[in-house]
Amino acid sequence: MVIHAVEVLKKEIPLEEVSVCIHEDVITGLVLVDIINGFCTIGAGNLAPRETNNQIVEMIDESVKVSRVFCEKKWPIFAFLDTHEPGKLEHPYPSHCLAGSHESNLVPALQWLEKEPNVTIRRKDCYDGFIGSMEEDGSNVFVDWVKNNNIQTLLVAGVCTDICVLDFVCSTLSARNRGFLAPLKDVVVYSRGCATFDFPASAARETKDALTHPQEIMHHMGLYMAKGRGATIAKDVSFCALNK
């Protein structure tokens, strides 16, 4: 039934994905959204997968690949880590990714990023990393990162496609459109570098306040909505050297 629904969905609202080549003469920054244990590592918390999930596995693998290229080239990377204080729930979700816990840390395959000089790590306590980057004095750590690095293109990967990734992309595009993020021009969402969770109707019916969340459908919808806001959706990403 779910497979049939996905096929119908993709037919009724098709998503155009393109191959993206990142040129060395265009300053590009990589944003990694919540690729942490609490969302990606089996059994790591209330919102972690209970078993191996192919979409999440691929997301981690692709994020590692692009992160290594960015670090080799010493290009800027900004990593959001979902982190919540005890007792501050994020309705409708149960307690997750508590500050100081294993849940709120990068997955093992990406922990090496913490030692890289070109990486900025930002812990956030809300869905939207753009909002989560705001400081009490009104400044915004993410906005400053874009401007200080003169970033023209953003490549975005992470989880969840239809929640934190989408919220961040929408806010970033709105800020760009208002002229708050110059010189930023393009926001690219890497589809294979994104993933979301799977919570079928059968499980949702047995959980109070839970919403059904079929993975393939919601992943497609997250990408579709991001494209509708002005993002480019990349089916694959390559890196192009300068022509001499």
Automatic annotation (TrEMBL):
<dbReference type="Pfam" id="PF00857">
    <property type="entry name" value="Isochorismatase"/>
</dbReference>
<feature type="domain" description="Isochorismatase-like">
    <location>
        <begin position="29"/>
        <end position="199"/>
    </location>
</feature>
<dbReference type="InterPro" id="IPR036380">
    <property type="entry name" value="Isochorismatase-like_sf"/>
</dbReference>
<dbReference type="InterPro" id="IPR000868">
    <property type="entry name" value="Isochorismatase-like_dom"/>
</dbReference>
<comment type="similarity">
    <text>Belongs to the isochorismatase family.</text>
</comment>
<protein>
    <recommendedName>
        <fullName>Isochorismatase-like domain-containing protein</fullName>
    </recommendedName>
</protein>
<dbReference type="InterPro" id="IPR044717">
    <property type="entry name" value="NIC1"/>
</dbReference>
<dbReference type="GO" id="GO:0019365">
    <property type="term" value="P:pyridine nucleotide salvage"/>
</dbReference>
<dbReference type="GO" id="GO:0008936">
    <property type="term" value="F:nicotinamidase activity"/>
</dbReference>
